[in-house]
Amino acid sequence: MQRIHMRWTIRIGAALVLLWAVYAMSPYVAAYRLATAVQARDVEALKARVNFRAVRISLAKQILAVYLSTAGDEGASETAARQLAAAAIDMAEPLMAQLLSPEVLVDLLDDGWPQSVVSESAPKAPDAPEGRSETSSPVQPSTKPPRMSLGLQQLTWRDLFIMADTRGFRKFYVTFPGAHGAASRVRLFFRFGPWSWRLYGIEIPDALARRLAEELRRRLGRKP
């Protein structure tokens, strides 16, 4: 009888260890599958891996924060400021709907810059250091716009383990170092629930938040 109890204890312990290992790996698998969907531009697979409402709120907060920090008129009354904020939120809805369409989200996630919404490309890289001759190593023209960050378009398992950060049991972050410094990084937030990991938020580069805030200002008919 004692041996039977010991066997069941070992089996249960092994099963729990296996379940924990599967759960510990599950956010990495979810992030990699999202990257695979982006690389394949598979919209249907993307829909199954993104909570669009949560991501929409996350982007709206960043864009409105930039807009409201620069759109207020000096000396404006508190009532006028509230009206401006309400109008900005109303105008942000269609912009967010456009930005959060699955097709545009793929465009944003692949390299950190949605060229289909923001017509110009991402900010260019800093100039070459002094003392380096421009003619010594000519730069070949490229048909692709410069990338703000690494994005998901070339994510590998090795990159994922380096960039990932687990917070507790239900939060998982993947931060892509910006090509032009911390201000150009993209950070993805995954959350577990109810039965799988899904993308819940995106921290976009400062330059992109400013550009989208300018687009919001244009739609409101206000001068930059």
Task: Explain what the structure shows.
It is a single chain. With 224 residues, the protein is of the alpha+beta class. The protein has a four-stranded antiparallel β-sheet with strand order 1-2-3-4. The chain starts with a helix and ends with a helix. A hairpin with a 3-residue loop joins strand 1 (164-167) and strand 2 (171-176). The protein has helices at 2-39, 43-47, 52-71, 78-99, 102-111, 157-163, 206-220; strands spanning 164-167, 171-176, 186-192, 197-203. It has one domain (43-125, 144-220). Helix 4 packs across helix 7 (206-220). The chain is elongated, with a radius of gyration of 22 Å.
List key phrases describing it.
7 helices, 4-stranded antiparallel sheet, 224 residues, elongated, alpha+beta
For the biggest β-sheet, the strand order reads 1-2-3-4
Provide the β-strand percentage band.
5-15%
Number of helices: 7
Report the structural category: alpha+beta
Protein topology:
Layout (H helix, E strand, L loop, with lengths): L1 H38 L3 H5 L4 H20 L6 H22 L2 H10 L45 H7 E4 L3 E6 L9 E7 L4 E7 L2 H15 L4
Antiparallel strand pairs: 1-2, 2-3, 3-4
Helix pairs in contact: 1-5, 3-4, 3-7, 4-7
